[in-house]
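Weekly sync, protein design subgroup
Attendees: M.S., D.O., the rotation student, P.L. (late)

Item 1: inverse folding check
M.S. brought a backbone from last month's batch and wanted to see whether the design step gives back something sensible before we order anything. D.O. pointed out we never logged the input encoding, so this time it goes straight into the notes. Structure tokens as presented (222 positions):
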């Protein structure tokens, strides 16, 4: 083997190691986002203040992963000579971690809403909102499994789940927006309106993640 070919082989092996490490970091970040989402759910539906108080520290860890992964992707794009498949992976990772970071932000915002709702009695819509939250969490988990296993049909699979969340959002929005028998202050209604919007956006970002997995594998969003 010539020195030139040996160097090319060594560079390629190093590049592939970097990609594998990046994928593992994305999955670790995803695990933190799942945990943040789970804690926000507990804070809302179990009125668990301790769960809400754990989220800011988790969010800082999520943000650190986000900045680190973006920097590493940019470095590989500029310092290496990635082929078409590598470009797909790196560009998808950069977009995917933005989706994860946004879900983490919404989880933190959701916990803040939960704390404000502690002083009010539970609204009659809370069971439906809880089901919506569980469904959005399922979508995130499904997307991350798809990433770990590089499933080509991930986008289509999660998009079908997203329709359920969209339907729940429309139904709940109508109930909250046109509620006539409001007694006392309207703050809890406004907070619940924000809450279902956050959950709907979290589900959208989970769908984006799955579609980016399909793009990595096939070159087409699912």
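Designed sequence read out in the meeting:
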């Amino acid at each position: 083997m010539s020195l030139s070919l040996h160097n090319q082989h060594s560079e390629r092996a190093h590049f592939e190691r970097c990609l594998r490490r990046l994928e593992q970091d994305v999955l670790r970040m995803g695990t933190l986002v799942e945990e943040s989402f789970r804690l926000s759910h507990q804070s809302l539906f179990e009125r668990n203040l301790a769960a809400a108080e754990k989220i800011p520290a988790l969010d800082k860890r999520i943000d650190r992963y986000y900045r680190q992964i973006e920097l590493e992707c940019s470095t590989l794009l500029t310092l290496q000579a990635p082929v078409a498949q590598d470009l797909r992976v790196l560009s998808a990772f950069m977009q995917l971690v933005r989706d994860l970071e946004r879900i983490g932000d919404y989880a933190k915002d959701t916990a803040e809403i939960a704390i404000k709702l502690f002083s009010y009695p539970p609204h009659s819509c809370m069971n439906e909102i809880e089901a919506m939250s569980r469904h959005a969490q399922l979508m995130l988990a499904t997307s991350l499994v798809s990433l770990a296993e590089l499933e080509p049909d991930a986008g289509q699979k999660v998009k079908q789940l997203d329709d359920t969340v969209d339907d729940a959002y429309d139904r709940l929005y109508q109930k909250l927006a046109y509620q006539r028998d409001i007694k006392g202050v309207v703050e809890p209604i406004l907070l619940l309106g924000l809450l279902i919007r956050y959950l709907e956006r979290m589900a959208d970002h989970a769908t984006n993640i799955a579609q980016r997995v399909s793009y990595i594998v096939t070159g087409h969003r699912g």
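Discussion: The chain is about 85% helix and 0% strand. The mean pLDDT is 91.
Action: P.L. to compare against the previous round before Friday.
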